[in-house]
Amino acid sequence: MFGPRYLWNRTKRVHAIFNHEGENLLLEREVRAESDQLTHVYTLIVHEDSTYEIRVDGESKQYGSLYDDWKFEEPRK
To answer: Helix or strand or coil: residue 34?
Structure first.
């Protein structure tokens, strides 16, 4: 799932959720959603090298590694 989420005028963030092995993994870093009255375009780009970029209205708001910003694998002990 991907897109903005607004909760009772308190939380305004972009959710990026992957399903991995039956578990929903939420983006660990916060990306603020736009809160004005205009319509906005939210884009999630996943690259072949396991990096991603989140854009709002074509402007990059966040980028990084899938493995750093989601818990796809448990840390090794």
So the answer is: coil
Residue 49 backbone phi and psi in degrees, to 5: -90, 20
Conformational region of residue 8, where left means phi above 0, alpha means psi within -120 to 50, and beta covers everything else: left
In eight-state DSSP terms, residue 33 is P
9-45, pLDDT tens digit by residue?
677 888 899 998 898 998 988 888 888 889 999 999 9
CA distances (Å), origin 6, targets 3, 9, 10, 24, 35:
10, 6, 7, 19, 9
- Quote the distance between the C-alpha of residue 55 and its chain's center: 10
Q: How many CB atoms lie within 10 A of CB 44?
A: 14
